[in-house]
Predict the structure.
Amino acid sequence: MDKMVICLGGNPNAGKTTVFNNLTGAHQKVGNWPGVTVEKKEGEFVYQQKKIRVVDLPGTYSLTAYSIDERIARDFLIRDHPDVTVVIVDATNLERNLYLAIELLELGANVVIDLNMMDMVRQKGWQIDVNKLSQLLGVPVVPTIASKSEGMEQLKQAILTAATKGSLPFKIDYGADVEKVLDEITVLINQHKDGSLNVSARWLAIKLLENDTQVKNWLQNLTRGREIITKATSMSQALQQKLGEDVETYLIERRYGFISGLVKECVQKPMGVEEKLTLSDKIDKIVINRWLGIPLFFFFMWITFKLVFNVGAPFADYIDSAFGWLGETTKHLLGENWLSSLISDGIIAGVGGVLVFLPNIIILFLAIGFLEDCGYMARAAFVMDRFMHALGLHGKSFIPMILGFGCNIPGIMACRTLESRKDRLLTILINPFMSCSARLPIYVLFAGTFFPKHAGTVIFIMYALGVVVAILTGLLFKNLFFKGEVAPLIMELPPYRLPTLKSVLLHMWERSFMFVKKAGTIIATGVVLVWFLSSMPPGVEYASGQSWIGHLGKFFAPFFKPAGFGFWQAAVALIFGILAKEVVVGTLGTLYGVEEEGLNKVLPTYFSKLSAFSFMVMSLLYIPCIASIGVIKQETNSWKWTALAVGWSLFVGWTMAVLFYQIGRIFGA
Amino acid sequence: MCPLSMVENGREVEILQVRGGFGLCQRLSRMGIYPGTRVRVLNNGRPGPVVIAVGEKRFGLGFGMAHRIFVKLLS
C-alpha cells in the first residue's frame, strides 16, 4: 500500500484545527488550494509504520457549490479520492453537524466520524449511544476530546481500519416521488458517463435536482449532457409542482429529517436542560445588549490599544538599544568602509528600526487572538451590524477592519468569511485605510517631535481619520459599483469559552511571524536598495542631493510642494514607503544620516507643525504597501480592482494632505 | 403569524416561512433553519440583532433578516 491520504472536514467551531494539530504535531505545511487563495494546511503522521498524509479541508456546513470553501472541499474529494475522510462533529450539536457528514456519505466518501467535545456532552448530562450511531450510519464513530488530546489513538486506529476496509454504500430515502425521478436521471447519467466524472451517478442526479451550477457544467461536457440537463430540469419542475415546494429545500429537509431521527435514537438528554439559559446566554444578554453593546465594544478596543502601547513600550526600548549596540559593534569591528556602512547603516539600522515594533505587534495579535478564540469577535460583528448597515456594509465586515489595525494583510484575508462577493470586494478595498501597525512608527516619530504634549491625541486623530476615509470610500464605492442591498447578517454565535493558551499563542505566532518574515525580506531589501541608491554614483557623499536617490527625490518633490513637504528626502521616504510603510522612518534616518533619536532634532529644520501633520496624513492614506497590493490582487483576483485600490488611495492621500496643509495655512496654523 | 423580529424574549416559535431570495433560504436551511424548525428567541435587541437558539446552537440574525422570517408563536 502506498502512502495514505486522509482529509479532515467539519463545521466551523467543531474543533477541526485542534484535531489536525493533535494528529500531525509539528509536521505541517501551509499552502494555498490551487487557483484560489484559501489556505490549505497539510500535515503528516506515522501510525503503525504507515505514513499518512493529512489534508485539512476548509470548515464548512455543507458541500454545495455556493461558497468557495465548500467547492474546494468538494473538488478535493472528487478529484483526489482520499483514502479516508474524517468528519469532526461537535457532539453537543449533532443535528447540525451531522448534515455535513451525510453529504460526504452521499458523495461516496469513506467516512470516519470523530465525535468531538465529548466532555461538554458529559457536562450536560447527555448520553450518546456511539455504537448505535455507528451502526445506523454504517461508519466508524470515535468519541474524542480533542482539546485534551483524548481519543486520538482510537481515531488513528479507526482511520487505518477504514482505509483497508473501504466504505459501505449509503443512501437516504427521499420519498417515492423523488426517488422515482432520481432513478430515471441516474440511469441516464450512467449511460453517458465517461471516465472524466469519477463520482456516483446518484449523487450527480441529486445535485442536478438541487440545481447545482458546477455539476451542470460538468455534465454539459458529456455527450448528450445537455439533453440530460434539460430532462432533469423539466422533471424537477414537475416535482416542484407535486411537492408544493422548492426541490432543493425539500431535499435538505429530508436530510435533516433523517438526522433528527438518528439523533432521537442515539441521544438521551435529561429533561428540561434545553430550557435553561446557559452561561453564554447570560453573558450575551449583557454583551449584545442594545444599550451596553457598543460602549462595551469600545471599552474592549480601548483596553486592547492601551495594552499594545503601554505594555509594549519598555520591550521596544530594549530591542532598540540592542540594535543600536549591534550597529556600533559592527562598525567597530569592520572599520569605516562601504561594507560596514551597508551592514550597520543599511541593514541593521533599517531592519532594527522595524523590529522595534515587534512587541507592540505581538501584543496586538495576542489580544485579537484572545478576542477571537473566546467568542467575542462574532458578537462584535453583531454589535456593529446596525452601524455598519447604515454605511452599506455588512456587520461581518467589521472584523477585517479591526484586524486591519494590526496589519492590512490578515485584514484583507479575513474578508473571505463574507459570503457575498459585493461585500467582500468592498471590505477589501477599504481595508488599507485602516491604519496598520506599520504606520504607527511614522506617527510616533512625527507626533512625538512636533506635538510632544498632544502626541496621543494626534495619533488617535490619525486612526480616526483612517476610519472616516474608509467609511466614506465605502459609501462612495457602494454607490458607484455595488448598487443593491447588503446581504442580511446571520452568524453562528459560538458559546464563550476560555481560549487555551496554546491556541492563542499559535495564532499570535503565525501572524507575528509573518511580520518578522516581512522585516527580514521585503524591508531588508528595501533598506539595502535605499542604501545602494544613496551611495551611487561612486564617490558621492552618502545620501546627499547628488546621489541617485537625491535625483529621484528631486524629480518627485515638486508634487508634494502643495502639501508642504516639497523636499526630496520626504519624497524618497514616501516612495520607499510603498515597499513597506515601516521603511519611511528608516529611510528618513538614512537620508539625514541620524538614528531615530537624532531625527527629533533634524526634522524641525525641514518640517513645520502643519507640514508634519500633512505628512502623517499622506503616510496614512497613500498607496497600500507592496505586500498589501499583492494580497488585494490575490483576493480580488482582478488587476482592475487592485489598480482602483492603488489609484484611489494615492488620490485621496495627496488630496487630503494638500487640503489639510492649505486650509491650515489659511487659519495661520 | 408574525415576523421573528417582533417576538419577545424567551418565547418559543415555529418557523413558517422565509421571505427572501433563493440564496437566503438555502443558506438558512443549511444552517438548520427552515419552515417547521422550532427556535427560541433569547435576545431580541429590537431594532438590533436577534439572538435565537436552535437546539444547542446560538445564531445571531441581523434585524433585517429577522424581519423576513415569519413565525408562529408556540404555547
In short: The mean pLDDT of chain A is 82.
